[in-house]
Fold:
Amino acid sequence: MSLVEVSFSAYAQMLKKGWTNYSGGFSLSSTTTGGLEYGAVGAATSAGYDAFDYSYDEVVLAGNGSINWDATYMFSYQALGEMTKVGKYITEGFYGMNNTKVYTYYEGCSDGGREGMSQVQRFGDEYDGAITGAPAFRFAQQQVHHVYPATVEHTMDYYPPPCALAKIVNATIAACDPLDGRTDGVISRTDLCKLHFNLSSIIGESYYCAAETSSSLGFGFSKRQAGSQTSTTPAQNGTVTAQDVAVAQAVYDGLHNSKGERAYLSWQIGSELSDADPTYNSNTSSWGLNIPSTGGEYVTKFVQLLDLDNLSDLDGVTYDTLVDWMTIGMVRYLDSLQTTLPDLTTFRESGGKLLHYHGESDPSIPAASSVHYWQSVRSIMYGHLSQEDAQKELQDWYQFYLIPGAAHCGTNSLQPGPYPENNMNIMIDWVENGNKPSRLNATVSSGDYEGETQMLCQWPTRPVWHGNSTFDCLNDKASIDSWTYTFPAFKVSVY
Structure:
C-alpha cells in the first residue's frame, strides 16, 4: 500500500501529525513509512549529496586532505531540519489546513538518535516531540572509542580468545544479576555490579566454545556496513587467565592518557566485549589484532583525512594517540558531528517533549554517554537550582530512561530484559493530551518472565526489586556517582 493511500485513509489523523523517522550510522534513512500507523506524513531527503545512493562516509572527503563541508553539515543536522520545515509547509497547503496545528514528531535510535538530538538542539521550535534512543553523539570520542579495546590488547601484547571474553561477560551477568533484588538473568543495576563485583573472581573458571563462522554487523554505522566482518573461529576451551581479566577490566575502566587522566567513559560492566574480539590467524594458529572499522574508518577519513576504510595496524599507537585523535575530531567537528549542545531552551520554550532512552548493557554506544548528556543539560539549564529542583523542572519536558539489560537499540540475547515498544503512543499522549509519563512502559519478550510488563524507572532513580513481582525506583547517591564522569584529559568542557 502506498503512502498516499494510507494517508488518505487516515486523513483526520494526518491533518495533525508530521513524522520523521531515521536510523543508521553514516546514513540518513530513506524510509518514509515509519509513522503510517499513526496517520502521519512521511518524507526523506537526499541531503544534497544523493543520500539515497551514497552514505555520508562515502562523500565526507572531497579528496585526500579535503573535507566535504557541505555534506558534513547536511548530514549533521541541516538536511533534516530543512526537510521538516518544507514538509510542514507542504502538508498544510496540500490538505488546506489553514492555521490548524500540525504536530511534528521524531523517532530514531543509534545515529538515528544522534540525528534526533541534532534536531532538538538546532531546530527545537520545529518539533513537538522527539524520541531518541542510544544517541551516537559526542562523535569524536564515540567513534575513536571503538578502537580502544584493540589498543588495550596491542599495548598489553595479548589477545584473549573470544570464548574467554564471553565467559567473563556471562559469569559477570550471573554474579551481578541478584544485586537488584531479583534473579532473572538481567543486570538491572550495573552500578552495583561495578561497585561490588571483582572480575578477578572469574580467574580459573573454565570455558568451551564450538567452532563457528560468524558475522559482525558493526552496529549499522554505515549504509555499506563498514563495520561488518566475517570470521571463522576454531573450537576454544581453557580457563580464564589473569591476562584475560586484565584486558576486560581495562576496557570496562575506559580510556585514560599516560598521566592517568580520564579521556572517555566506557561500556558498563557485563556488556558484551564485541570490540575486543581478536582475529584468528589460521596460518599461525593464534589470535591477533582486529581493528573494528566502525572506529578505524573514522580515524582514517575524519581525522587523518585519507580515503581509507580502516587503519591497517596500530604500530606506534598509544592511549595518548587515541586522546589526540579524539581531540582533533572534537575540535574539527564541534559545530557539526559532535551533537552535544546542552542548551535546549528553544525546544523547551516551544513546548517540545523529549523522551530519551538507552540500553544499560549497550556494547556499542556506552549507556553512560547518555547519562553524561542528561547531566550536561541539567547543569547548563538549571545550574542555579538544587539537583532535586532541577530534576523536577527537567521531567516536565525531558525524561531519560535506562533500559535494564538491553543492548544496542534492542533486546539482548544474553539478558532477557524488558524493552519499550510503544514510545510513540506515550509521546503523542504526552504532547496532545498533556498526560506526562512518570515511568516508561516496557515488556519482557523472552525468558522466564516473558510477557511481563515493567514500568521502568526515570533517571536518576534506580530499580530495587522486592521479591519477584514489584520494584521501587529509588535515589542512590553511590549509584549516581558511579555514572558521573569528568574528562581532565581534555582542556575544554566535554558535554
Remarks:
- The mean pLDDT is 91.
- Residues 142-254+268-332 form one domain.
